[in-house]
Amino acid sequence: MKKHKTGYFLAGRLPVAFIFSIGIFSCSHADAPAKDEPDNVFFTMGVHNDFGCDQENCLPERKAGEPSDPKYPAQWISDWTMFRVTNNYQDNPPPYTNPPSTLDENDYTVSYGTSYYDSTYIPEDGDGKGAMMEHYDGYCLPIFPRENNNYTCSFVSLGNKAYFLTYKDDRPEGMEECCLFSPQNHPPEQDFIKHLPYSDLRSAQLDDSVQAYGIELPSPNGPILFGYAFNRQASPDTHTGKMYRHPQSFYFSGDTTKANAPIVSQNYTNFRAEKPDPKTTWDQVGAMCTKQPLPNCELFDPASEEATLKKEGKEIKNKLHEKRGAGVWSNLTTEKK
């Protein structure tokens, strides 16, 4: 099994995988009016902003017999193991166990990180609410078209603004210390899972031990996946003792043009309802994002399919409107026959 070297941690352990693959759902309402948004405002199915959403199209209907929606604790911290799956994912889709029991150890590489979340945080400028930080230790999130992702990075969302951070020990040449990822990309709310359809088939892959959710957006290069799974059974929190259904994994499509990451799964370990320390998380933005004006991130290749799908939410929405109800979703997001 290939393992990426453990990287450098700033002030202990910093970390959101808040870049959700985009999608759209059937509804009887007309599309929301097109908004004149900058290129760095992304359609996120209502999870990180309301761009491209009307009253119902970002809220899939829950069917009779489906389980109730789990929720995040108000504040939490979790380590995770990230599997970059390069082989045999077609016949063995996520969610996965840790390590993936349906894959050979040569089918994936392994790296690590930590996520931090506080739904009560209010940024100093008062723009939005909530904070989330996802720290990738020694291997950055492989959704960007880069062949070499062996560097430490963090995504931080403070209120409505989201930032991308890199560190001097292994920062790629020419990459900014801090850039603005998006001016409208707030952390997921505690009930964010309401924006994703429940999947019987994905849940059954792990013997119904999880509640799996997912959407797949059709594209010329194949479906683009975003999914999330919670444990079906409640268990006590290691920090508070409270019983709830813990997150199990977050799985999604990565970049295939250069990063060779068709499927990525972040499997949570030691998830606990503990308040993050601002000094080692949110305060890093104030310390590192000092350039004025703060540059916008240039992480996606403008010519790539991934960039088009992520940057042109309203165009995708209009295209998919013609296909609603006509097999837009794969059989892994439908009920069992």
Give a structural overview.
With 337 residues, the protein is mostly beta strands. It has one domain (2-333). It has 4 helices and 13 strands. The chain has helices spanning 200-204, 283-288, 305-311, 313-321, and strands at 2-3, 75-85, 108-118, 131-137, 153-158, 161-166, 178-182, 210-217, 224-231, 235-236, 243-244, 247-252, 263-272. Strands 1, 2, 3, 4, 5, 6, 7, 8, 9, 12 and 13 form an 11-stranded mixed sheet that branches. Strands 10-11 form a two-stranded antiparallel ribbon. The chain starts with a strand and ends in a 16-residue tail after the last helix.
Portion in beta strands: 15-25%
- How many beta strands in the DSSP annotation? 13
Order of helices and strands: EEEEEEEHEEEEEEHHH
Task: Summarize the amount of helix as a percent range.
Answer: under 10%
Low-confidence runs (pLDDT<50, min 5 residues)? 1-35, 302-312, 314-337
Number of helices: 4
Average pLDDT, all residues:
81
Termini Cα gap? 37 Å
Largest sheet: 11 strands, mixed
| Envelope shape | globular
Round the Cα radius of gyration to an integer and report it: 19 Å
Structural class by helix and strand composition: mainly beta
| Number of domains as seen in the coordinates | 1
